[in-house]
Amino acid sequence: MNKAIITVLGADKKGIIAAVSGYLAKNDINILDISQTIMANIFTMITMVDISEAAKPFDEIYDDLKKLGDELGVVIQIQLAEVFDAMHRI
Amino acid sequence: MFISADEITQTLHMIQSEHLDIRTVTMGISLLDCVRDSADATCGAVYAKIMKRAARLVPECEAIEREFGIPIVNKRISITPAALLMGNFKPDECVKLALTLEKAAHDAGVNFIGGYSALVHKGYTEADVKLIDSIPEALAATTAVCSSVNVATTKAGINMNAVRDMGVLIKKAAELTKDSGGSACARLVVFANAPEDNPFMAGAFHGIGEPECVINVGVSGPGVVLSAIKKVRGEDFTVLAETVKKTAFKITRMGQIVAQEAGKRLGAEFGIVDLSLAPTPAVGDSVARILEEMGLEACGAPGTTAALALLNDAVKKGGVMASSHVGGLSGAFIPVSEDEGMISAVRRGSLSIEKLEAMTCVCSVGLDMIVVPGDTSASTISAIIADEIAIGTVNNKTTAVRIIPAPGLKEGDTVEFGGLLGEGPVMRVNPFGSEEFIARGGRIPAPIHSLRN
């Protein structure tokens, strides 16, 4: 399994989760965990996904999500999960 | 979720708002197999070897930046000390090697290449003399080449002939680049106990005890430490030290994972993570501001050395457990021109060369990026070097001097170097001379290491 973390930050509006999860489903990226809150009026969504069977290489997914974020008026970032594991777990 | 949302947002906040980054991924390359019977043939072999090893350095680091979501500010190369390659060079051919390194750095896409260096702590070889004499011209003819000279070790003592010569060469290098404030001197470091695996410029070179090709990583993070200790304002020193330690652990883990990944992708060994806190001229990325946050009115005020000692020690304690191999310089850096808080402290009259010298007793790496008046004599520069080198030699640690006598400028003026090198206020130098002291030459014997007091 190749885990990545997708974070979505920005102004809340309808359909953000639908748009992001729609993109993921279309590209064979499996959602392992998902959480969403509104913190100080900022929409915050954190998703752990498995990209091992993804239809596209990491770079393309990175660019696609950035573009999708621009369309939705939010910032979407994807990072390999190892980096969080390294920082917060011994 | 195996990692909490809080932890994820904390990491993102460190990167986006607190300047957490990987300061440098430096590839060390051995060039010992490039020695040929002529300068031209050696230069050809050097270029080919560097490009073979480092052609993928920048693209692979950029891929890691993307995938891990952490910026890698600099990608750099360090090489075998160049004097070791110059046995068959004629004296006027040395600059050819510097130009070869410049071209290799440019073609590999790195901003600095370090190792135009000589290790002369006990004396000069003929090749050392050729290289050292060519340093001013080599630096003036290039923009990416960095040079260093190791003039002392704790075991060998101090080569005072080399200390004397460096004063003269530094003046010459400044003069050759007077249009840019003597900027060549920003790429020239004089060391005691130079480390063989240092990833940071301008002092990086690939020591002869190192493997064929190695990845060394330097992390940054003064902004992250500053924001962590702001949360414990007024608490006692135990709490303060613990806070720095925990933060340093997290910062260093980033360096460790990037170093391992870069080594794997580039077919090079993972060497070390350097635990230094390295500032930049950006506001919020300053070591001086950390010291001030501890409760000092300005960096340089009484208490500064103690504050720095605590900071440096806590960074090491936190970092050492976060990385499997620690090395390089590993100590807080206090370069003046590259640290917004240091610049401000000099301008406020709180920080002097003498106080900086005291601070270097408890941290890395010495009198770094100090700009002095252009009319400072070569012997005074040598004497400033001698003082700093003595601190390293006697205390069994690395110290260094990177000093810029800015041509035509006087105390209170400012030199703009630009980029990571920042801007340097011209500092006051003690006006009393040291000429006869420096004229003696010879070697200061190695210090005794029993009877320690």
Characterise the protein shown here.
The complex is a heterodimer of chains A (90) and B (453). Chain A is of the alpha+beta class and 90 residues long. Chain A has a single domain, classed as ACT domain (Alpha-Beta Plaits). In chain A, strands 2-3-1-4 form a 4-stranded antiparallel beta sheet, sandwiched between helices. In chain A, a hairpin with a 2-residue loop joins strand 2 and strand 3. Chain B has 453 residues and is α/β, with parallel strands linked by helices. Chain B has 2 domains: 169 residues, Alpha-Beta Barrel (Anaerobic Ribonucleotide-triphosphate Reductase Large Chain), CATH 3.20.70; 221 residues, Anaerobic Ribonucleotide-triphosphate Reductase Large Chain (Alpha-Beta Barrel). Helices cover 42% and strands 18% of the residues of chain B. Chain B is globular. In chain B, 59% of the residues are buried. At the A-B interface, strand 2, strand 3, helix 2, strand 4 and helix 3 of A face helix 1, helix 3 and helix 8 of B.
Observed structural traits:
heterodimer, A: 90 residues, alpha+beta, Alpha-Beta Plaits, four-stranded antiparallel sheet, B: 453 residues, alpha/beta, Anaerobic Ribonucleotide-triphosphate Reductase Large Chain, 2 domains, twelve-stranded mixed sheet, two-stranded antiparallel sheet, 42% helix, 18% strand
